[in-house]
Amino acid sequence: MRAFIFPGQGSQSVGMGVAVAEASRAAKDVFAEVDEALGAHLSRIMREGPEADLTLTENAQPAIMAHSIAVLRTLGIDLASKGHFVAGHSLGEYSALCAAGSLDLATTARLLKRRGQAMQAAVPVGEGAMAALLGADLDKAQAIAAAAAEGQVCTVANDNDPSQVVISGHRAAIERAIAIAKEHGAKRAVLLPVSAPFHCPLMQPAADAMADALGSTEIKAPAVPVYANVIAAPVSDPDRIRELLVEQVTGMVRWRESIAEMAAAGVEEFVEIGGKVLGPMVKRIAPDARITSVVTMEDIEAVAKEF
After folding, report:
1. Active site residue 41
2. Domain encompassing residue 270
3. Which pLDDT score, from 0 to 100, does residue 148 have?
4. Edge-to-edge strand ranges of the sheet holding 128-134
């Protein structure tokens, strides 16, 4: 069995998709459609930068999705006949839903721009933070977060793999967590260069905004089940998908569990579309799984021969 997986924020870089768009009409059309949907030249920012503009959450989220879909369409496969599940890390869940036909490309781009804007606006700059706890599993990370909270928000945002968990919340609480991480068993703690504290209760205003946006959005049943971040289980019902996308804004990304559950269900190959970020995590969760990352035209041509 095979699953297609899609990266989240942090996988963006200036120049992303340029070579694929030059070689593939399908990719070029994806970027043009996203530009039109947003009424902006996002593809130019992806191509030329500046990096600060691409890193803005409202640009990074649709850009990463557009890149993944451009790579997938250049690959030119029928997802339903080549895969059994799809999943995406945080915003990558929108890429997965677009890939599986639940959301059309233009709608996905607009939703992600709105999501990025809402997340950025939810907490004033400087009040929130995120940190990666390395060498810490979920139990250790939860203990660190609880000890550091002191009445503020400090919770697990991403359970990425057995050795990497990300926490999110008020900056002061995150700084306390970094200070006590080693004594609680983590190898080290690293403050992340993000502009807002994603996937924690401070994001509730953004969740409300996405509830409004998704409430008027047509969502179709996906061609293959989507493993949803917040429940680490497959879903196909459009109304349930809508609910879980709203919950995802404040909820924990249960990536470790999602991969483990897919592996337990019989998935032997994970194909990361548009990035090389998730593969190493998958390998630490499911060591026997085959990992393929598809980013460049060379990757696309190699995978196309196998499929």
Report:
1. no
2. 2-122+202-306
3. 97
4. 154-161, 164-170, 128-134, 188-191
